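Narrative summary of target 7.
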Amino acid sequence: MIDWDSMRDARGDSGVVVERLLDRLRLEPDAALWDELDRRLVVENECFFSVGFAALPALSQLAQSGDTEQRDRALDLAAVITRTLHRNHEDDRLVTANPQALAVLHSLAQARVATCVGPPLVRRLQDTLAFAGYTFWASISLDFADEHYHLGCPHCSTRLAIVIGDYGHYSAIRDYSDGDVHRLPLRPAAPADLAGIGQWMHDTAVAGHDMTLADGLTYLFGQAACGACGSTFNLTDWFEAENSPTQPIDPIVPRTDRST
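Modeled conformation, tokenized:
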């Protein structure tokens, strides 16, 4: 049983208010009710409230509605909450208490992204990643018109800027006076060589006719070199290792379900 009364939402009110909103949405799909629920659970596109994590099973049920708008609102809100798992671990018990809810959300998000084209594609792709346990990849920007990432070289710890976009595809050491120095080109992965989640992300981008995203992903899943020590490394392996703590969702969705 969920103790709604012991929790507080973004306004400081009892979680019972959220419970009642969820109950009303089961009976009365309404945009105003969804807006109110969003305001109580999400601040600046993140959820750090126990009541939000407790709401995931109810959101999973609402996402199974035959009403498309109800499904989309439930999936969108649940994905925002789930992405927050990348940095929040205080409420892991609430997430692991109902693994079936996340499996259902993952399946519904996969079906939705498979038919998606245009601007919503990236966000809906990342929603699917979140429910699959890839909360880091679900949280970072994938704007490959002008993308910049920062990470330490795994061999010498030099801080590197990774640029993927219209300005080039390279690693560099960022100097505040001289800009990007010691630039070295990134080596993209061949699409045929991608596997697992990289292959799924690339195939989804191609199916959605977003070739900017598809091309950028080949660089993200490719090789980078360090301008300080000259070493090379797999960019995504190290980027994920540097940024991804253990997730409570990891054992919930089997690996075979993540990239199919």
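The longest strand covers residues 168-175.
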